[in-house]
């Protein structure tokens, strides 16, 4: 059975796309079949995997969602691109920006993406959705399609307010539409361990949230190499195999596969 994970945070630039790509390829390296879905009209995931000029693509997520809206069938391999490192991708481009408004007058508008995902997911062990930085209909659709949500949080400042808003939205989706939705965990990203600020943000988040929500033991370090990967279309594992970001994403992959065993241990260590 496949597991669908949404990578979501309405705050921009927190590492959603970088995490989707590198967790996805990390899972492939562990022998899993993985589909990534770019659910952002910026097409950053698509471009970061080396698929240039997505605005010229004929079939994208927007095409599939349009089909779903019109009750047309979607075939299992429709619009799916293959990356050299073994991960598959449903790309996105600027056309997706019209979807927020198109969904307004659609029946079952929260379930359109879920229909698309359900049509293609049987071929995969994991489907990861890279969400757009807003709490609009596309993100709601991603949360409805998902079994689990991973929340990347940048360790530069205390994101309490934004996080509360996101958690409220997740709670609403869970209550009204997708009762099985789980929070996989909060993931600290761009952690500059040399600074006191990053350490104190990390500690605060663990203290404030880890009672009710998993905070992954793995923290993604601030790394120029990680930032460069999106320009070369490769994962951190091929671009900087022995680097600290590659090691961190490898560890995150294991935590996601293990489904929290290590995390619970860490939680009690922190709280003690
Ligand atoms: P958006 O909300 O715009 O979709 P995002 O949450 O998807 O952004 P990314 O695009 O993954 O965030 O990352 C934002 C920027 O930070 C990018 O330029 C990316 O290359 C860079 N970046 C991502 N992870 C790291 C890291 N660990 N260290 C340094 N830079 C990083
Ligand atoms: Mg992004």
Give me the secondary-structure topology.
Blueprint (H helix, E strand, L loop, with lengths): L2 E5 L8 H14 L4 E6 L4 H5 L12 H9 L11 E2 L5 E3 L8 H6 L7 H9 L5 E6 L5 H9 L2 E7 L5 H17 L5 E8 L6 H14 L14 H9 L3 H4 L4 H15 L2 H11 L1
Parallel strand pairs: 1-5, 1-6, 2-4, 2-5, 6-7
Antiparallel strand pairs: 3-4
Helix pairs in contact: 1-11, 3-5, 5-6
The structure holds adenosine-5'-triphosphate and magnesium ion (MG).
The site of magnesium ion has 5 residues, from α1.
Task: Provide a descriptive summary of the structure in words.
With 272 residues, this protein is α/β, with parallel strands linked by helices. It has one domain (3-271): Rossmann fold (3-Layer(aba) Sandwich), CATH 3.40.50.300. It is 45% helix and 14% strand. The protein has 12 helices and 7 strands. The chain has helices at residues 16-29, 44-48, 61-69, 99-104, 112-120, 137-145, 160-176, 196-209, 224-232, 236-239, 244-258, 261-271, and strands at 3-7, 34-39, 81-82, 88-90, 126-131, 148-154, 182-189. The protein has a 7-stranded mixed sheet with strand order 3-4-2-5-1-6-7, with helices on both faces. Strand 6, helix 7 (160-176) and strand 7 (182-189) form a beta-alpha-beta unit. Helix 1 (16-29) packs across helix 11 (244-258) and helix 5 packs across helix 6 (137-145). The longest helix has 17 residues, at 160-176. It is globular. Magnesium ion binds at residues 16-17, 40, 44, 130.
